[in-house]
Amino acid sequence: MMTSKNRDHLNLLCDIGELANLIIGSTDIQGFLQQTVEMVARHLNAYVGSIYLYDDTTRDLVLKATVGLNPSAVGRIRMKSGEGLVGKTFESRQPICEARASGHPDFKYFKEAGEDPFESFLAVPIQRGKEKIGVLVVQHEHAGYFDEIDVMAMRAIASQLTGAIENARLMIDQNRQTVPARGDDLLERLRFIKGKTASGGFAHAPVTVLKADGESLLSDRPDSEFVSAPQDFLKAVEATKQQLTDLQDRLAQRLPESASLIFEAHFMILKDARFVDAMLTKIEQGVSVSKAVRDVAGHYMALFSSAPSAYLKEKAQDIEDLARRLLNNLCKEASEDTDHAEGRIVIARQLLPSDLLKLASEDVKGIVLVSGGVTSHVAIIARSLKLPMVIAERIDLLELPDGTPMLLDADMGSIHTRPSETIIQRFEIRNQTQKAEKKATRPIFAQTRTRDGESVKLLANINLLSEIKLAKDLNVEGIGLYRTEFPFLVRSNLPSEEEQYLVYKRLCDEMGDREVTIRTLDIGGEKLLPYLEGTKEANPELGLRSIRFSLHHRKVFLQQLRAILRAGAGAENLKIVFPMISALDEFRQARHAVEEAMVDLARQNLPFHPAPALGAMIELPAVLDIIHELAKEAAFFSIGTNDLIQYMLAVDRTNERVAAYYQPYHPSILRSLHRIILAAVKAEIEVTVCGEMGHEPEFIPFFIGAGLRTFSVDPHFLRSVQETIVDLSVSDASAYARALLAEPTLAGIQALLRSPKKVA
Ligand code: PEP
Ligand code: MG
Asked: Domain 442-759: which topology?
């Protein structure tokens, strides 16, 4: 450690690599805490670095790791909240910086610490939201050593480390509570896993692992547990049909755009004489009922799994699901898992949007995926469905025995397998508090203004019709993005013009005179339509997707445009946006298609909206150099940051392995966003951000400072976005944006993002 203050402000913060080393590199919790204090002391050029964590059971703050103090004091120094300078920091949630700590009236002397020589004292609270976690302390021999900059740096470091420290604290509790059973290596390994938040929330439930390999066909149950008479088999077939119909009804109420389709494959298989008859024949030949079901289902699963088409391959999963339901109904004693996913946390390798729907209809509590990225569309749909979802690249999660208790803290991306009582209680308390806070603080959403009176428009991104209610309850100003893919993705065939019309009409009717922006089909990439054969591509993200697909399949495009225009007849403010526009020519072709659809509709004497505003999604780097010309032709821009980042930085947004390269704060991204906004402002057209970046508190001041005045975000982010905006002033935000735009390095930008007040 050094004695002199030889520092540059940015070096006071930790960089991402350092944080990652700390979290991934440490082998155990104590090691992590120890490395943390060493790193903090190093950054602050301090002699002493210590961390105190709050122990819920004893209600003490306990010294958990230190460098510089006597190591034997770890675990022994304890104090109450409010006691001594550390306790005061914890209680007040405020940093305490003392030039001469020993002279302070609150100073408490701990003989065992060996802290006599250290005069300068700086402590900051570690907290997550309203939850107090502990205190981070640095000390130095020289009086008056720490200053304002150190306080800011310590705060920034504490906030960077909060998530990891909170998890470390939970793990410590977990260790105290659970004595692992012998040979429980897997459970031990999976006791705590840090993944990524795909959709926030909290769930505590037993797990069910989706494997689609036939293993889950109740193969562990002996024949004697199943009925044996053919008539009982036929009764079970009927009961299965009834259960599927009930599930379907539940789904239809919750998700009207998918009604009557999601279990279509199940019904068709049940109707297929070869399936049920083959089972019956075997039963009549003396094969046991359960074996007959497993054999026939297994035969078809193998057949479908080896089919060349992705669509047919998927059917293997449907057959497995169906056979499992059937077997459950064949059990003599009511089986526990009639709806095997109901009330469970589901672990799967991969899920399709339609799988998510099925799971939602069964009221699953949460989802853990062992592959995928957090901006992928299943993640977006999970958020729409309010299903907590975590993505963790841990294939061994698939080996967890069915029914293992799990606690999913999807807000933090944490997975606790077989959680201890303490952990469960803590989460339940937090969950209740959050619910109560949400109710108590729900503001009436009317207009949004910055602190200095600038008006900002807030719109909602909608994927499902069921989300309109929340958006309307929040009194949102309109829909800034309706993704039309959903009805296409959950069907087994292209939805007809009429089906689409009904969905869009409901959207327009519900929103009344508020604006509605409907995006034309953004299919392709990871959102493949399995029923369109020949769409398999080596590089689907760079393939015939989005507007290219629409222009290529002109009939499909015209059908959709007709449905949109008809649904918008009489609507006040209808907007249509074309996704992934890469050239002026493409935008013009799309506009021509709208004109053609209008001519058609007029000829047929059908009512339609005669003049919707036509806009372009700005999400490909290719349009940056024609942005001014495009701004002259488009009625508005919608910035799709999810794809803009993916394509500018060549990082697959769904690939967890390159997630660290998905950097919204990259200088080229920020500068491009600025160019786009400036071009729109110059051409006097509206510009909205509708990608995930738009709801992130660290980027909202940047957008405002860069001149953006319209945000479209998932409905459940509306309130937090509003809260961030009303706290901002345009002049501060502009200075902040200027500073960010002037910074050419990733590290420099990250440092500024962490401490915006430094600039403003
Ligand atoms: C985007 O790319 O930012 C966007 C809003 O569209 P999607 O997430 O549907 O691709
Ligand atoms: Mg996009």
From this structure: TIM Barrel (3.20.20)
Q: What topology is assigned to 219-336 in CATH?
A: Enzyme I; Chain A, domain 2 (1.10.274)
Q: What is the β-pairing status of strands 613-618 and 636-639?
A: parallel
Strands 366-369 and 389-391: parallel
**For residue range 378-415, what is the model confidence (pLDDT) as tens digits?**
787 788 788 999 998 888 898 888 889 999 988 888 89
The domain defined by 4-178 folds into Beta-Lactamase (3.30.450)
Query: What are the structural domain ranges in the chain?
Result: 4-178, 219-336, 442-759
Which tens digit of pLDDT belongs to each residue from 639-654?
A: 999 999 999 999 988 7
Q: How far apart are the C-alpha atoms of 374 and 484, rounded to whole Å?
A: 20
Contacts of 720 (CB under 8 A, 6+ apart): 695, 697
For the CA of 645, the nearest ligand:
1
Ligand 2 center to 116 CA (angstroms): 59
The answer to whether 377 is a known catalytic residue is: yes
Strands 202-210 and 405-409: antiparallel
Residue 690 known to be catalytic: yes
The one catalytic residue in 204, 377, 695, 716 is: 377
User: Which of 643, 644, 713 gets mutated to test ligand 1 (max ligand atoms within 8 A of its CB)?
Assistant: 643
By alpha-carbon position, which residue is closest to atom 9 of ligand 1?
483
Report which bound ligand comes closest to the CA of 642: 1
Fold match between domain 4-178 and domain 219-336 = no
